[in-house]
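Usage

Read records sequentially. Each one opens with the input sequence:
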Amino acid sequence: MQFSERWLRSFVDPPLGSDELARLLTMSGVEVETCRPVAPPFSGVVVGQVRSVQKHPNADRLTVCSVDVGTGDPLSIVCGAPNVADGMKAPVALVGAKLPGASPSEPEVIKATSMRGVESRGMLCSARELGLSDDHSGLLALPGDAPLGRDVREVLALDDRVFMLKLTPNRADCLSVLGVAREVAALTRAKLQAPEIRPVPAASDARFPVKISDPRGCGRFAGRVIRGVNASASTPGWMKERLERAGQRSISALVDVTNYVMLELGRPLHVYDLEKLTGGIDVRFGRKGERVKLLNDMTVEVDETVLCITDGSGPIGLGGIMGGDSTKADLATRNIFLESAFFYPEAVAGRARRYNFTSDASHRFERGVDFDNNVDGIERATRIILDICGGEPGPTVDTVAKLPERRPVRMRVARAHKIIGVPVPAAEMADIFGRLGLAHAREDSGEVFVVTPPSFRFDIEIEEDLVEEVARVHGFERIPARPPRAPVAMRPQREAHRSPHALRQRLADADYHEVINFGFVDPQWEADFAGEARPIRVLNPIASQLAVMRTTLFGSLVANVAYNLGRKLPRIRVFELGRVYLRDPAAKEGALDVAGVRQPMRVGAIAYGPALEEQWGVPARNADFYDVKADVEALLAPRVARYASAQHPALHPGRSARVLLDGAPIGWVGELHPRWQQKYGLPLPGALFELDLEALGRVELPRYREVSKFPPVIRDLAIVVDEGLPAAALLEEMGRFRPAGVQKIRLFDFYRGKGVERGKKSLAFRVVMQDTARTLTDAEADAAMAQLTKLLAAKFGAKLRT
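and closes with the structure output:
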C-alpha cells in the first residue's frame, strides 16, 4: 500500500513528524517499508510565464525567452526546450538557485551566463532537472492558475513524502488511506476527519437489473446508472497528483475516479458502458467451457470454481478480480453503470494466481473488503464523476443477498496479561478497543471483554486477535524484554523407550547423513517404489511433480542419491525420519491421524557406493545387502530381528527381506530393483531399509545375568537340511528349546557342493555351553549336543553331516 503523507494528513494530522509517524506505525504492526520525499531538495525555483520567444541569433536550436517571474522586470533566458511557447508557465531557476546535483552535498548552483553571445539570467526547467522524473523532452508545464513568482515546491506540493506499507495479509483494513488514518487516530488520539459522504439525489429513474444467483460468492451488489457523462473530460490535477504518488497511472477520468475511491475508502469499483450490456447482470459461478476477455487483454476459460459477472451474452468479468473488455467504458462512453459489490474472500482467493496475474481488486477482496461501505463507495464516486464528467444519476440500487456474520469474540483479562507479559489495566484495554472502533461490553465482573468486530476487520476472530490489538496499541516498546523463567524439573527417562533423537544418533554414528524431504512426491515414484496406483492426491500441489502423498520413503531416498550423484559424490549414505500417508478406513480423527488416513513415522536409509571410505587397509568394495542389514541390526540392538525372504516393488526380487520383530513385520531391507536402478540413472545398486519408528522405539529393560568364572565348552554342530529351509528357522527353534547350560548358538559356516546331495545344504553352528556354578563335563556337553540334534531332526528332518 502506497500513499502520500499529505493525503493521509487530510484525514488525520497528529503532531508528529514524518519519521516519528512512520516509526509509530511500524511499532504498532503496520510496517512502513519506506518513507521517501516526492522530490529531491532544491531551492530558488519559482513560477514564471514566457512572454515572448525569439530565435537565438547565433544558434539554430536555441531560443531567447522573455520570462516574467512576478518582479516586474522580465528575465532574458536562453532555452533549448522544443516545447517552449508564448504564454506557457514553467519552473524558472533564478540566479543563485540550487538544483539537484550529483549528490545532495553537491547541488548545481545556477549562475548568470552568456550563451553564444546572449546573456541568460536563469534557467527554464524540465522535470528531470528538478529531479521529479526522467522526462527531459521539454519544459515542465505548470497549471495556468499558478501564481507568478510563487515557489514551485509550494505550487506542486513537493514538500510531501510517500509512505510505502508492507502489510501482513490479515490487515486488509489498511489497504486504504481511510484505514491507515483510522489506525493513526487510534494510536495518537488525533481527531479523524473522514470524507463526508452524502447521498447524491437521483435525477432520473434509470435502473439496471441485477441478480445474485450464488450468494456463496457475492453477498452484496450495489449499482447506479449515470447517463450523459463526458468520459473524455480531463482528470483534475489534485487527483492525478494523489494517484501518481500512490503508484497509479492516470488513464481516464472514469477509471481514475474508481481507482481514487478504492485507494481512499478501500472500496473497489467498476464502470460498465451501459450500452454494451445486454439483459441484466447476474453474479454466478462460471460454467465449463465459458471464456471471457479481460481488461488486460487476456482471454481466460472459467469453470464452476470461478465467480463471474455475467449478462445475456455470458461472462463479462471475473468477480472481485477484473472486468471484461467487451463492456468496458472508453472515451466515447456516454452512459455508464457503476458497480460496488462485496465478494467473499473464499470465492476470490487464488483465482487470479491461477491465471498468472493479479489486480488491485483481487488483492483486496481475497483479504476481506468492508461489506458495509458499498453504498458509500457508490455515492462518493458518483459525486466526483458528476463534478468532473457531469451526467444525470439514477437511484442507487442496493441488492443484499447474504453478508458475513460478525460473531462476538471473548477476551479474558487474565489471559491477556499472561500472553502480553505485563498487567495492562482493564480500563486501558477498554480505551484501546474504543479507539480502534471495536464495540465491546464487559462480563464476569469486568474480567471478560466481549468484542463485536466491525465490518472492516476480517482479522478479528479469536481471543488472541484481541490480545494482539491490546499489545500493539499499548506499545510493544513498553513491554519489557525479560528472559523466560520456568521451573526446572528432572524428568525420568524411560529405559524401555528410545527417542527418535537416539535413533538419529545411531545412524549418524554409522556414517549416515540426515535428510528432510517433502511428504508429497511424484505420482510415478509411488507407482514404482510402492506399487501404489491410488495414492492420496494433493488438492492444490505446489508443483505437478509433487502431487501425491507418499506411502514409502524409498522414492525420496533414491532421488537424494541421484541428486548427489549429479554433483560427483561417489559415496552416499543418507537417512530420513518422516511420515508416510496410508489409506485406512479404520483410522479415526486423532492427534496424528485424520479420518481414513494413517500417518505413521518411519525411518529409512540408503547406502550407495563404496562400503568404506577409500583406504589402504581393506580392499575397495561396494555396499550391499549385508552392510545395510548390519546397520539395521545395530539400530535394533539389543533386540534381535528375524529376516524373511519376501518381495517388495522397490527391491531386488532375490535380495530383499521382510524385517520381523517378535513375529510382527516392522519393515523391509534389500537392494534396489535393477529396473529402477536403470530408470533413475544409478550406475550401482543401492541398498535400502525402511522400518516403523514406533517399533524401533521399544527396547527391553536391562536384566541381570551372572557372569561365569568357569571355562566354556565349545562344540560345533554340522547338519544337512533342505535347500529352501532358512537358517533363521533352525536358530529360532534351538533358541526356544535350548538345553540347560547352552549360552549361545550362532551360524558360522554354509556349504553346498561336493559331499552334499543335490537339493540339500550344510549348515554349521557353534554352540557355547557354560555354567555359573561349575565346569561342565564332556558327558553333559555330549548330552546337550545330542538333544539339539534330535530336536532339529524331529522338527526339520536334519541329519548330521559326516
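Summary fields computed downstream for this record:
- The chain has 21 helices and 41 strands.
- The first strand starts at residue 2 and ends at 4.
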